[in-house]
C-alpha cells in the first residue's frame, strides 16, 4: 500500500487510519509485506521544553512503524491487528521542529502469534535520531496474512 489509497483497502475503509496518528500528524507513506514507512511533518506542538522534537513522538513513530511492518494485509476489506508486548528505544540525536521525520520499520522475524521488528527514525537531513526493537503479538485471526474482515 502506498499512502491511504493502495492495496489492502476495502469498501472505503482505511486500515492504516488511527486517531492517535491523526492527532500527532503521522501518516503512512509506504506499506508492504515486512516493511512500513511513516512520516511526520513536525510542528510547534511536537516540541519539548527544550524546543526540539519530544522523544515521545519518536517513540510513537517507532512503535507504529514496527507494528505496521508486520501487519500488511493484501486482501481488500480485511485487516491485521496486533498489540505491542515490548518496545525499546535509543535516542541518537535531536530533531528540529519544522522538519520531516521518517520512521522505517522492518520485520526481523516472526511466527504464528508473535513477530519482532526493528525501526529507525531519520530527521529531514537523513540523520538517524532514534532506533528501536519491539515484540508484537497478533490479535485473534491476524496471524493469518489474509487477516480478518474490517468491521464498519
Gyration radius (Cα, Å) is: 15 Å
Portion in helices: 10-25%
Q: What is the SS-derived class? A: mainly beta
By DSSP, the count of extended strands is 8
What is the terminal separation in angstroms? 20 Å
The chain-level mean pLDDT equals 90
Q: How many strands, which pairing sense, and closed or not: the largest β-sheet? A: 6 strands, antiparallel
Unreliable stretches, pLDDT < 50, 5 or more residues? 1-13
The best one-word shape is globular
What's the number of helices?
2
Beta content comes to 35-45%
Strand order of the largest sheet: 1-2-5-6-7-4
Series of H and E elements: HEEHEEEEEE
What do you see in this structure?
This protein has 152 residues and is mainly β. Helix content is 14%, strand content 39%. It is built from two helices and eight strands; from the N terminus they run H-E-E-H-E-E-E-E-E-E. It is globular, with a radius of gyration of 15 Å. The two termini are 20 Å apart. Residues 1-13 have low confidence and may be disordered.
Amino acid at each position: 500500500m502506498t499512502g491511504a489509497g493502495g492495496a489492502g483497502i476495502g469498501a472505503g475503509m482505511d486500515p492504516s487510519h488511527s486517531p492517535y496518528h491523526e492527532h500527532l500528524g503521522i501518516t503512512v507513506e509506504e506499506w508492504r509485506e515486512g516493511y512500513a514507512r511513516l512520516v511526520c511533518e513536525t510542528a510547534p506542538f511536537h516540541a519539548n521544553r527544550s524546543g526540539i522534537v519530544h522523544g515521545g513522538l519518536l517513540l510513537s513513530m517507532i512503535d507504529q512503524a514496527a507494528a505496521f511492518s508486520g501487519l500488511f494485509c493484501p486482501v481488500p476489506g480485511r485487516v491485521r491487528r496486533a498489540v505491542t508486548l515490548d518496545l525499546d528505544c535509543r535516542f541518537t540525536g535531536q530533531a528540529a521542529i519544522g522538519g520531516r521525520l521518517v520512521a522505517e520499520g522492518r520485520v526481523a522475524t516472526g511466527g504464528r502469534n508473535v513477530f519482532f521488528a526493528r525501526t529507525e527514525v531519520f530527521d529531514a537531513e537523513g540523520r538517524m535520531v532514534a532506533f528501536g526493537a519491539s515484540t508484537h503479538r497478533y490479535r485473534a485471526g491476524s496471524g493469518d496474512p489474509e487477516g480478518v474482515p474490517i468491521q464498519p
